[in-house]
Write a structure and sequence with these properties.
One of its GO terms (molecular function) is oxidoreductase activity. One of its GO terms (cellular component) is cytoplasm. Keywords: Cytoplasm, Metal-binding, NADP, Oxidoreductase, RNA-binding, Zinc. The protein is of the alpha/beta class. It is 30% helix and 25% strand. The chain contains ten helices and 16 strands. It has helices at residues 44-52, 119-123, 126-139, 161-173, 185-194, 206-212, 227-237, 272-276, 283-296, 313-325; strands at residues 2-6, 19-22, 32-42, 61-62, 67-74, 86-89, 102-106, 110-112, 152-156, 177-181, 198-200, 218-223, 238-246, 264-267, 304-307, 331-335. The radius of gyration is 20 Å and the shape is globular.
Length: 337
Amino acid sequence: MKAVGYHAPHPIDHPQALLDLELPAPTPGPHDLLVRVRAVSVNPVDTKVRKSAAPEAGAAKVLGWDAVGTVEALGSQVQGFAVGDRVYYAGSIDRPGSNAELHAVDARIAARAPATLSDAQAAALPLTSITAYELLFDRLRVARGAASQGQTLLVMGGAGGVGSVLIQLARQLTGLRVVATASRAETRQWCLDLGAHDVIDHRQPLAPQLAALGLPQIDMVASLTHTADYFAQYVECLKPQGQIALIDDMPALDVVPLKRKSLSLHWELMFTRPLFGTPDLAAQGALLAEVAALADAGRLRSTLTATLGPIDAEHLRRAHALLESGTAIGKVVLEGF
């Protein structure tokens, strides 16, 4: 089968950073779906792994987690799916990726793709939707509906992939006041179009901008990028007993300043459930089914902003470079082989 991968970590401008490969088709395990991939999206995790993770000696590493495709075969213990189903999912970081014609994924973390979205539109959603949903409801434990009215969520980096879904989920499923951050006119408008009540500029001090909105202190922060750079400002802006949830990486983080206000810190990694085979593993498939229902009801829109071409090394290199530039809005997708 055709696939895209690499034999050694390289910067994206290296000629062997990503290569077109021919690899054996995977054999599905008892809980797996074997999926013929039709579209994939590219996430920051793809670029981080490509730059740092060496494959096993003599092997190639295939990246890619988000995918939409058609089920070709079922493992012996799979329930709820049939050959021919159109599915979407974000996979697991400890298994071969979805940048391949055929891909094996645990059925419990997959769901039927939104019927009203194209393959490219649907491929933009899984990883960011799982991250945003788990951050909101499993980490911050926000109450659904009117019970969360009167509370404010600050979404740092609202125009990124996770922020773009988080704004929508918070508006559609909770009573939170959503304040997003953006630094350009086009990203500001993107956040407003997705439903943010307010948008402030993360290049400027946060506290005065929040105060100007009548928010001298806020309840919770979703820190989606550059957490270490903004951490002191979060402590300043949060109410006593407020919460911070974060997803990005940093060499170290001093949490001592949280003590005086009894602030809590929550990490969200959407790969945790599949990595550890947690008892609630199927929660990811269930939440993707809910996201699909929201999309089909017109309550959640795809965050696709660019389809760069077919799934091959050339177009994936372009996608990785775009993400590494820090200027991407929403999600970048590749479609077909």
